[in-house]
UniProtKB/TrEMBL annotation:
One of its GO terms (molecular function) is isomerase activity. Coiled coil: none annotated. This is NAD(P)-binding Rossmann-fold superfamily protein. It comes from Urochloa decumbens. It comes from the Eukaryota. The keyword Isomerase applies. Keywords: Isomerase, NAD. Belongs to the NAD(P)-dependent epimerase/dehydratase family. Gene3D superfamilies: NAD(P)-binding Rossmann-like Domain (3.40.50.720). InterPro entries: NAD(P)-bd_dom_sf.
């Protein structure tokens, strides 16, 4: 997630179990046979010769039994199929922890690059499992995946929906087999800059213990790096119907500084960069995802109003104090990964020329 959405937000506490949840054993039972009393002796039938059934046929029979009985015991066909499909994980199969907006775009692009692969999506709740199944992502609940590990794992879940974010990263790392790549999408909010100054991949971060909001991200990053995974620090994510501009338009006016610098990257570009990093199969590296065209809040909304692509107009920012932002730059990432964004700037995304 991006700079704003990756930070923990206050919310009502909801306890999620991290214990692995076993799927009940599905077994078709034979109907009961009525008993009768006989006075005549009955000749015992000859024993039926035993038959050897191949492993593949046994698995097919078990799968059919599971599918036919799942509706009667409250286990969906998709869940049963998910449990069985985890018997084998392909070399290019992908596990996405947190398949939200970004994760779903990653899934779509990954399938285009690796036709025939399977993509698994791990979520905190089952609320959107139907949607995930419809777009070809095999859903499962957090803590339920057991057994075979994956060559490719990407963690896109934000911290505000977790009671133990660092623990969630440890679980994700345990689902990686050490091949391919394990990638964590973090945030550039961890960089220690609030004066609109320039920042890059190697700029200093906020010291641990100074801010609980950045502590959780930095500790999560450390888990990933120690496991050999990579970190992609993203700036503010956007597309036409999501992003800071949409929120500000809904408000009309906002008590915030107009000169605060923001950094942006389109969701599609963030996804393509994530895939490019995973394909490099690197270890314990930190990258930055941004479009290298930082804008102030006022500049963003001036362009939104000028584009004519939205039904309403933003009235203005009224704040005069508060911290400023940072100007992110990722030329090092681009050079090493060989990546360029589809949308070089928010201005060009809106169909405008750079001012």
């Amino acid at each position: 997630m991006g700079e704003a959405s990756r930070l923990p937000q206050p919310r009502p506490h909801r306890v999620h179990s991290h214990q692995s949840t076993a799927i009940p054993y599905l077994q078709a039972t034979a109907p009961a046979v009525s008993s009768y009393s006989f006075t005549l002796s009955v000749r015992r039938p000859a024993p039926i010769p035993s038959l050897r059934v191949s492993r593949s046929r046994r698995r097919a029979a078990m799968s059919a039994a599971a599918g036919s009985s799942s509706s009667t015991i409250g286990v969906s066909d998709a869940t049963a199929a998910n449990a069985l499909s985890l018997e084998s994980v392909g070399q290019n199969d992908l596990l996405i922890v947190g398949p939200g907006v970004l994760g779903r775009i990653v899934a779509e692009m990954w399938k285009q690059e690796y036709p025939g692969c399977k993509i698994y999506g791990q979520t905190a709740t089952a609320d959107h499992h139907g949607e995930l199944a419809e777009i070809g992502i095999i859903p499962s609940l957090k803590g339920s995946i057991m057994g075979p590990k994956f060559s490719y794992v990407i963690f896109c879940a934000p911290p505000y929906r977790s009671e133990d974010y660092v623990g969630d990263l440890r679980v994700a790392a345990s689902n990686w087999n050490g091949e391919g790549c394990f990638l964590f999408t973090s945030s550039t909010a961890v960089y220690d800059c609030s004066d609109n100054g320039l920042c890059s991949e190697d700029s200093p971060c906020v010291p641990i213990g100074q801010s609980p909001r950045t502590d959780v991200l930095l500790k999560a990053e450390n888990v990933v790096l120690e496991a050999g995974g990579c970190v992609l620090r993203l700036v503010g994510l956007y597309k036409s119907d999501r992003g800071p501009h949409v929120y500000w338009l809904s408000k009309g006016t906002l008590d915030a500084r107009p000169d605060h610098i923001l950094n942006l990257i389109h969701y599609e570009d963030a996804a393509s960069l994530a895939i490019a990093i995973m394909n490099k199969r690197l270890r314990s590296r930190i990258f930055v995802g941004c479009d290298n065209e930082p804008l102030s809040r006022q500049e963003i909304m001036d362009r939104v109003n000028r584009s004519g692509k939205f039904d309403t107009e933003f009235q203005g920012f009224t704040g005069t104090d508060g911290p400023l932002g940072k100007r992110m730059e990722n030329s090092k990432t681009r050079a090493e990964i060989g990546w360029q964004p589809k949308y070089p700037s928010f201005t060009e995304f809106l169909g405008l020329s750079n001012l």
